[in-house]
Amino acid sequence: MSGSPIPVGKFFTLGSGLKVHYHEAGDRAPGRPTILCIHGGGPGASGYSNFKKNMPAFAQQGYHVLAPDLLGFGLSDKPDDIDYSSVLHVEAMRELTTGLGVDRVVPIGNSLGGSVALEYTLEHPAAVDRLVLMAPGGVENPALFWGQTDGGRALADFARTDDGSEESFRKVLTLLVHDEADITDTAVAERYEIARSQPKRVFTSVTIRETWTRLGEIDCPVLVFWGANDRFLPVDQALKAAREIRDAKIVVSSQAGHWYMLEQPDDFNREVLDFLARPARA
Fold first, then answer.
1. Domain segments of the chain as ranges
2. pTM for the model
3. Which terminus, N or C, of the chain has the lesser number of Cβ atoms within 10 Å?
């Protein structure tokens, strides 16, 4: 794909005919699940941009890693006549993994991707070994908080009234991090052209299932990251996850916003690898 703002990986065609783009790292190893990295729902997001600092570290430790672009994002198809619900994304991720012959996964999901990862785990529990979440949607009913956070309001305004300028786009990105220095020209360039290609429906038709009422059903170990300075999803929701998920470890950092895996990649990678190496419960 000439002129792509992100490296071009591989494509998988769903039964619907829509194509999902994904990056892959590492080799499959007997007895080890595939790490399935699911990005968030911000404008211009992609699997590569959200997890480029994490995939190599996991692959170097012997894990097979997939980082797909959800439909409507990255280099995946972006039709303007469908609803971009969590059901759509979960079904696409399930079709992708089974189509590639992957039967066991560790979903790693951020924001919207966290909601998709939660729903995937609840719908396909036998396929999920462990679960990693970063400031995930789906822990609390978004109607209770989304319109009250700086990030939520900014994203809604961007979806409705975006003037198409790189400056307005950069302003949205700065709300995603604790330190605005993390929003580099490279970070903007990777996302801006993709954002320009996204139909408004990608953002205006988003719906998620009520996973916040089912957290107690999750039967696998869960690792949850949250930035104390998150301006999209309140960090207080981390305590709800700790109370309601049977086996959950919570990591909160004063040095992160909504993008823990990009803002503190070394810490994130170390915590995830330690979590994956932890003995399974008897």
1. 10-277
2. 0.96
3. C
